[in-house]
Amino acid sequence: MSGVPVVVVHGGAGAWRGLSLEEFKAMVRALEEAVYGGLEVSRSGDCVDMVVEAVARLEDSGVFNAGLGSVLDYSGSLTMDAGIMAGSGGAGGVAVVSYPRNPIKLARIVMEKTPHVIIAGPWADELARKLGLEAHPGPSARAIERWRKLKLDPSASPWVESRVKAARALGYDTVGAVASDGKGCLAAGVSTGGVALKLPGRVGDSPIPGAGFYATPRIAVAATGIGETIILSMASLKLSEYYEKTGDVEKAATMLVEEHTRIWGQGTIGVIAVTGEAEVAAKYNTEAMPWAYARLGEKPTINGLPNTVLP
Ligand code: ASP
Predict the structure, then answer these.
(1) Which residues are catalytic?
(2) pLDDT values of the chain reduced to their tens digit, one per residue, 311 residues
(3) Which residues line ligand 1 (CB under 6 A)?
(4) Per the count of CB atoms within 10 A, which of 64, 79, 254, 308 is most buried?
C-alpha cells in the first residue's frame, strides 16, 4: 500500500447550512476534480505538486471560501491566507494577500524560493506580481452578497466578546489537501479567505506551520475551523505527535478532535491526514466537513457532506 499515491482534500469544517442543490452538486464535483487533479499530477510530479494542484483546483472552483470564492473581511476587502509544508522539512505561508488567484502557489514560492517561512501583506502580493502569478479577479458576486447580508445582521460583528462565538456564527469553509506520492514524499497545504467579517489584518491558522498544516516523512495533516483555536492548540503538529505515539492515524485524529472539543467546544475544528502507508483519516466536531480521497486508480470517496440541502 505504501507505494500508492493518495490524495485527501476537504472543503472546510462548518455548518454548511442553506446550500442549494446546485451548490451542493458543484461542491461535490469540485472535491472530486481536486482529487483527480492531484492524482493525475502524481504521474509526473511529487507530493508538493500533488497538493498544489489539488488546492489550486479547489481555489479555482469558486465554491469554497478560498481563492475565487473567498469571503470578505469587515471592511469588505478580500484577503487570503495559505500555507504548504513538505515532509522533508520546508514550509511556506502567505498571509493577508489579495493579489494572487492561487495563494497556494505563492506559499509554495515562499517555501522553495525564499529564505523565509511566512510573508504577509503588500510585499507578499508584490512577490506574486513580480513572479508572474495570475491575478485574482476580485470578490465573487456570492461573497459580496454574503458580506452584505452579514453586515445587516446586528449580531454578526467581529467585536463580540468571544472570538469563538463570533467565528462560529459567521461561518468558515476553507480548503486543504494532504498527499503522499507513494515514494516517501508527503505534503500538506491549505488556503482560505479566513473567517467572514474578520477584522482587517487578521491572520488565521492557515499560513502557520504546526497550526493549520504540518508534514513529516511519516504523516501530513491539514486543519480547518476557527483559526484562533487552531493556532492556540497547534492542532496539526499535535496530531502528528499523537500519530508518533499511537502509530494509528485514526486514533490520533480522534484524540486531537476530542481534546480540541473539550477545550474549545463543538463547531471549532476539522482535520484530514494521510500517512506514508497510504492510510487516511478525517475527523471534525462541526455539522459537516465535506472531504474526499482516492488512491491512484480509484474513484474518489466523498464523506462529511451536509444533510440539509435547500430544494
Ligand atoms: N481556519 C480558517 C481560518 O480561521 C477558516 C476555515 O477553516 O474555514 O482562517
Answers:
(1) 174
(2) 568 999 999 999 988 877 888 989 999 999 999 999 999 999 999 999 999 999 999 999 999 999 999 999 989 999 999 999 999 989 999 999 999 999 999 999 999 999 999 999 999 999 999 999 999 999 999 899 888 887 777 666 666 555 555 555 555 579 999 999 999 999 999 999 998 888 999 999 999 999 999 999 999 999 999 999 999 999 999 999 999 999 999 999 999 999 999 999 999 999 999 999 999 999 999 999 999 999 999 999 999 998 876 66
(3) 12, 65, 172-174, 192, 194-195, 204-206, 224-227, 230
(4) 64
Q: Where are the domains of the chain?
A: 6-303
What are the residues facing 283 on neighbouring strands? Answer: 271
Residue carrying C-alpha cell 511556506? 92
CA atoms within 13 A of residue 200's CA, in its CB half-sphere: 7
Residue 220 gets which letter from DSSP? E
The strand pairing partners of 1, in sequence order, are none
Under 8 Å between Cβ of 261 and 270? no
Separation in Å, CA 11 to CA 75, 136, 273: 25, 20, 14
Cα–Cα distance measured from residue 34 to residue 28, given in angstroms and rounded to the nearest whole number: 10
**What is the atom index within ligand 1 of the atom nearest the CA of 227?**
4
Pick from 206, 231, 236, 269 the residue to mutate for probing ligand 1's pocket: most ligand atoms within 8 Å of its CB. Answer: 206
- What is the longest distance spanned by two Cα atoms in the chain? 54
Indicate which atom in ligand 1 lies nearest the CA of residue 225: 7
Per CATH, the homologous superfamily of domain 6-303 is: (Glycosyl)asparaginase (3.60.20.30)
| pTM for this predicted structure | 0.95
- The one-letter amino acid at 198: K
Per-residue cell: 126: 508584490
3-state helix, strand, coil split of the chain in percent (to 5) is 35, 25, 40
